[in-house]
């Protein structure tokens, strides 16, 4: 029996959707970047970084900084996968 092919695009979309649940800002100011907890698979975080959706996840912080596109893609993925309202 062969190993099933892993669809990393679907994994990355699921990670983005889950990141939406942990979005936060360090300060309650518009200039403060959006962050999400980074307790996800390192390969997935590396792929998201390669797509310029998050800043480099390799540091001591417990969260990653999202780019503007990354923040929007988190919301879109969440609503696409869980069908709550519109994203």
Describe this structure in words.
This is DUF6429 domain-containing protein. It holds the Pfam family DUF6429. It comes from Sphingomonas sanxanigenens DSM 19645 = NX02. The structure is a single chain. This protein has 87 residues and is mainly α. The protein has helices at 8-21, 42-50, 68-82, and strands at 24-25, 34-37, 63-65. It has one domain (8-82): Arc Repressor Mutant, subunit A, CATH 1.10.10. 44% of the residues lie in helices and 10% in strands. Helix 1 packs across helix 2 and helix 1 crosses helix 3. The longest helix is centred in the C-terminal third of the chain and has 15 residues, at 68-82.
| Mean of residue pLDDT values | 91
Under the CATH scheme, which class? Mainly Alpha
- What's the order of the H and E elements? HEEHEH
Strand arrangement, major sheet: 1-2-3
* Helix run count: 3
Q: N- to C-terminal separation?
A: 40 Å
> How many distinct beta strands?
3
User: From the coordinates shown, what is the CATH architecture?
Assistant: Orthogonal Bundle
Shape: globular
Name the poorly predicted regions.
none
Tell me the layout of helices and strands.
Elements: H1 8-21, E1 24-25, E2 34-37, H2 42-50, E3 63-65, H3 68-82
Antiparallel strand pairs: 1-2, 2-3
InterPro entries: DUF6429
Domain DUF6429: 7-84
Organism: Sphingomonas sanxanigenens DSM 19645 = NX02
């Amino acid at each position: 029996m062969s190993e099933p092919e892993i669809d990393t695009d679907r994994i990355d979309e699921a990670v983005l959707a889950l990141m939406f649940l942990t979005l936060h800002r360090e300060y309650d100011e518009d200039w403060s970047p959006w962050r999400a907890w980074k307790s996800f698979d390192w390969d997935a975080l590396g792929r998201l970084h390669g797509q310029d959706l998050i800043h480099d996840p390799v540091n001591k912080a417990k969260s990653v900084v999202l780019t503007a596109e990354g923040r929007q893609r988190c919301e879109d993925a969440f609503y696409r996968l869980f069908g709550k309202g519109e994203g």
